[in-house]
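Dear Dr. V.,

Thank you for agreeing to look over these. As mentioned in my earlier message, I'm a first-year student in the group and I'm still getting used to reading structure tokens, so any feedback on how I've presented them would be very welcome. I ran two proteins. I've put each sequence directly above its structure. The first is here:
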Amino acid sequence: MAQYDLIIIGAGPAGMTAAIYGARADMNVLMLDKLAPGGQIINTNEIQNYTGVGTVNGAELAYQMFEHTQEFDTITFDYATVKEVIDNGAEKVVRCEEDDKEFTASSVILATGTRPRCLHVTGEDNFRGNGISWCAICDGAQYRDKDVVVIGGGNSAVEESIFLAGIVKSLTIVTMLDLTADPIACDKLRAMDNVTIYPFQDILEFTGDSHLEGVRFRSTKTGEEKTVSCDGVFEYIGLTPTTDCFQNLGVLNKFGYVEVNDRMTTKVPGIFGAGDCVTKNLRQVITACADGAIAAQEASHYVKNL
């Protein structure tokens, strides 16, 4: 059973930044993730608000971050699906699904991020992965010159809609409120000729038999129902924290987010949180990186004082 100063669960921007700061604090660091490093930004076409970088493809930024972590001999990355973290006081045990493999460390940072939320309406399960997607970068190309619907009005929905509008025949935005993304992005989307926006709508159903044919929705203001024909749908309606494997630690709030203070510490000594999976107001790449830096710094202080 390998022993480390710090185990970071999750290799998104928060986890990778934490790894770098941990290594610079002379800690032996293990970073675990069940998928490729980068987290949600791998599926983002353009990131325009990461200071000093300008416009950058999400996967490219993720690669640059991971390459940075690999400059340190004291950072190890491993693919693993964590199923449980056990607090044994000065020693933490991270148990993984693969062959019940275990790692131990003096401190752990929980940085597992979030996953897209679903609508749970009629037809969604039928067309999941076959007409309905949660990743425009992954699946957008197959809808070139076709009719597409995007559900949602936040930053992710608007940014990915701008990307999609450049390749599809028509793009319809259906959102439960109004567009709530950055005003500059919203104005850019509204100005695109092939975009139609329906704000203040409830999604009722995804229609079709063997393949997706359309989306039925109802106005929350007038009660009027409408069905828009489409070839594909992309959902961007919020996120759910990926924290099921931490339930035994007693560090989650009622929504499943890791409760931390401004130093990224949880109520369990030696357990820290960082990134989108923690309680916070703004979930962006830059805030995730800041969380990771703070969490690693606090973890180094904790380990040195053991």
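The second protein is here, in the same arrangement:
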Amino acid sequence: MAETKKTVTEKATKETKTKKASSTTTKKVATAKKAETATKEVAKAPAKKAETKKAAPKAKKEEKKVEAKKEVKPTVTEAKAKVLGLKVTPRKVRLVIDLVRGKNVDEAIETLSLVHKEAAPMIIKLINSAVANATNNFNMNKDNLYIAEIMASDSFKMRRYLPRAKGSASGMVKRFSNVYITLKEKSEF
């Protein structure tokens, strides 16, 4: 009987072990299946999102094309140019730019080529730059351009000193200027 009790207890322990093992394996299998289905769903979800993302930009592009066709681009009637930090005082630059304000571009360049001032060649360059902006960027006719606005203002100032008698010094300001120009097209009637 002792042997039978041992065998019975051994069999019972084996059965409980197998039941536990089978239950853990079934739990593992179940969790593995759940994980697989979850990964499949996650894999499908970005694909759906990607499809909607691909479809959305196409729709937006089509809407933009329709809006672009509806919008009429305004015609630009003026071109601008500027020079900053010109090493001439604004007072001296104003003497030169007052000669060409309101004139035709070709006439202004001819006038400035005859002026013997330090700022004249720099203003010619500025006018040529504005003409290039008008013709290349805005398709304006060079023959119809005139100087609508031109102005000079203060830029930065360099403080220096001049030596004076008996070891003293007096202040000196080296002024720079900014020049802005606007060209417009003459309307032909």
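From my reading of the second output: Residues 78-185 form a domain with the Ribosomal Protein L22; Chain A fold (CATH 3.90.470.10). The longest strand covers residues 145-163. Does that match how you would interpret it?

Kind regards,
E.
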